[in-house]
């Protein structure tokens, strides 16, 4: 009733048989061109180095962090906010005097924006 | 090391991860599994509510066992922990140096009247691929009426499963333009829309947004299939045209000596940090079959299996009860992240998490057969998303 797992003989046969499929043949031909290009440009050597287990582990530890995940999670909002900031930076403005600054605070949007900037300062200052 | 014999009972997530890792480390491992096929259980939701083909979520067990690990297709009849012997259905007697019990939980249809009949009639998303397929046929055939999704008991594996079911069902109906005519009702035996009050608001809002009606404080007492009514212990009733009921759960159906290692629901009593079965230093219970005080999920089974392997290898690794339960809806997902020391962190639905969940599903088969290939990525993720780090902002 029990069975012991066989070794990989059948897998090899399946692989060889798949070569009869013209799509597989086309794909392999393209892969060879791709590999050739990567070899000539040095990209292949770079990839081999990058896939060194130690490097993969290091890259993972460095970039798969709480901050990355938080940012990535908020990517749509982040990009929208950044776009808003860039647009604002490109808008033509006149420098403000002190009285001009104070009267800007009566604009609720500016007052809210200032409150948000203070929150940002609070977070940075708390680290 | 080759003469350290490890017997693994069950080729589910926990069993396969444990067996394949120990096999990699040169142990003499034998898995006993009654089925020829391994089912990725969350797939039943997609089969039942999205009409996916079951073949997407099943693989032959032998394809998931690495060379060198022995696989015995048989049932486990009796476990004798003092004799250190396991007896199989065909009468085989197997002994061990280490025993890893990963038999899962069992479904106890008869514990609530009408559940067995409901499952037979409509199918469900817990019994198996075939039952899920039957549920798809019933659900997809609805042009009007009410679909009720309800756990028959507050304890079941994968706490967000009924919510996922409701989301996927509502999304499918919306795509087909039937959401106005077919009502999706999620009936829960909890006070809030989610067992964790902190997440109840976020989950509740999303359910409402997706057109799901939620009924809380509804603990199924019986299912009247003839009149198509669900009755609750609280004295309420719910009419349905199709009912997708999650059957009550129990520990695995297996004779165990001594019986005292099982709790009153049939789950193996374990030390919650080491997953050692109480009273035995060479026996571990991994996954749904144990009584560890955390959710019964694939993630907890996988992480538990890694702890057990590390302990057998001689490291003082500890199980933290960490969960990472996905609540998925079309295009978005949320993770319920908690552990023994922390309730679920604040969470929000996002597209990224749905992508991560899809990525995890795509990696599933590889992560069972060659868990070591995924260890550093999984651990970097779990480390970056520890509850104590996410606590303030949530994720």
Amount of helix of chain A: over 70%
Largest interface: A-B, 22 and 26 residues
Distance between the termini of chain A: 63 Å
Residue-averaged pLDDT of chain B, rounded?
A: 96
Beta-strand fraction estimate of chain A: under 5%
Radius of gyration of chain B over alpha carbons? 21 Å
The count of helical stretches of chain B stands at 10
Shape of chain B: globular
Radius of gyration of chain A over all CA atoms, rounded: 29 Å
Using the alpha-carbon principal axes, give the shape of chain A.
elongated
- Runs of chain B in which pLDDT lies below 50 for 5 or more consecutive residues are none
How many separate helices of chain A? 8
Strand order of the largest sheet of chain B: 5-2-1-9-20
Q: What fraction strand of chain B? A: 15-25%
Number of strands of chain A: 0
Largest sheet of chain B: 5 strands, parallel
Average pLDDT, all residues of chain A: 89
Helix and strand arrangement:
The complex is a heterodimer of chains A (127) and B (395).
Chain A lengths: L8 H10 L3 H20 L1 H8 L2 H11 L2 H8 L1 H16 L7 H7 L3 H19 L1
Chain B lengths: L4 E5 L3 H12 L3 E6 L3 E3 L3 H8 L7 E3 L9 E4 L2 E5 L4 E4 L4 E3 L2 E4 L4 E2 L7 H8 L6 H12 L4 E7 L9 H15 L6 E6 L9 H13 L2 E4 L4 E5 L4 E4 L4 E3 L2 E5 L2 E2 L4 E3 L25 E3 L12 H15 L10 E7 L2 E7 L12 H19 L5 H10 L2 H4 L5
Parallel strand pairs in B: 1-2, 1-9, 2-5, 6-19, 9-20, 11-12, 11-17, 12-13
Antiparallel strand pairs in B: 3-4, 6-7, 7-8, 10-18, 14-15, 15-16, 21-22
Helix pairs in contact in B: 1-7, 2-4, 2-5, 3-4
């Amino acid at each position: 009733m029990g069975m012991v797992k066989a070794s990989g003989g059948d897998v090899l046969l399946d692989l060889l048989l798949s070569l009869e499929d013209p799509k597989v043949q086309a794909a392999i031909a393209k892969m060879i061109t791709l590999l050739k290009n990567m070899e000539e440009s040095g990209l292949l050597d770079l990839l081999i180095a990058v896939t060194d287990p130690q490097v993969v582990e290091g890259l993972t530890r460095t970039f798969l962090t709480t901050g990355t995940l938080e940012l990535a999670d908020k990517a749509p909002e982040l990009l929208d906010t950044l776009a808003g900031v860039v647009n604002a930076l490109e808008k033509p403005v006149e420098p403000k005097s002190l009285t001009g600054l104070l009267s800007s605070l009566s604009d609720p949007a500016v007052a809210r924006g200032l409150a948000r900037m203070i929150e940002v300062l609070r977070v940075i200052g708390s680290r | 090391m080759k003469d350290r014999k490890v017997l693994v009972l069950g080729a589910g997530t926990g069993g396969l991860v444990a067996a394949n890792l120990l096999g990699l480390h040169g142990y003499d491992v034998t898995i006993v599994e009654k089925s020829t096929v391994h089912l990725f259980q969350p797939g039943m939701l997609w089969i039942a509510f999205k009409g996916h083909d079951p073949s997407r979520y099943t693989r032959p067990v032998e394809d998931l066992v690495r060379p060198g690990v022995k696989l015995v297709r048989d049932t486990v009849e009796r476990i004798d922990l003092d004799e250190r012997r396991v007896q199989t259905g065909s009468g085989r007697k197997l002994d061990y140096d280490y025993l890893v019990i990963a038999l899962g939980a069992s479904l106890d249809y008869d514990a609530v009247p009408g559940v067995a009949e409901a499952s037979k009639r409509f199918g469900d998303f817990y019994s198996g691929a075939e039952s899920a397929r039957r549920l798809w046929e019933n659900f997809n055939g609805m042009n009007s009426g009410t679909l009720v999704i309800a756990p028959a008991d507050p304890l079941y594996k994968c706490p967000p499963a009924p919510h996922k079911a409701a989301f996927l069902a509502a999304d499918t109906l919306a795509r087909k333009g039937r959401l106005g005519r077919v009502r999706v009702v999620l009936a829960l035996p909890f006070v809030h829309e989610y067992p964790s009050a902190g997440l109840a608001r976020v989950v509740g809002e999303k359910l409402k947004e997706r057109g799901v009606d939620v009924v809380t404080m509804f603990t199924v007492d019986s299912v009247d299939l003839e009149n198509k009514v669900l009755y609750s212990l609280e004295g309420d009733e719910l009419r349905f045209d199709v009912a997708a009921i999650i059957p009550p759960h129990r520990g695995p159906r297996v004779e165990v000596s001594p019986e005292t290692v099982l709790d009153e629901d049939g789950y193996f009593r374990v030390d919650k940090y080491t997953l050692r079965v109480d009273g035995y230093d060479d026996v571990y219970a991994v996954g749904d079959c144990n009584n560890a005080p955390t959710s019964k999920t694939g993630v907890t089974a996988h992480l538990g299996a890694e702890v057990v392997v590390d302990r057998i290898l001689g490291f003082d690794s500890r199980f933290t009860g960490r969960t990472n339960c996905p609540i998925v809806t079309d295009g978005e997902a949320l993770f319920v992240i908690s552990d023994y020391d922390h309730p679920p962190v604040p969470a929000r639905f996002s597209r990224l998490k749905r992508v991560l969940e899809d990525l995890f599903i795509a990696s599933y088969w590889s992560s069972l057969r060659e868990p070591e290939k995924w260890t550093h990525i999984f651990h970097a993720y779990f480390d970056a998303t520890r509850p104590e780090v996410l606590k303030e902002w949530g994720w």
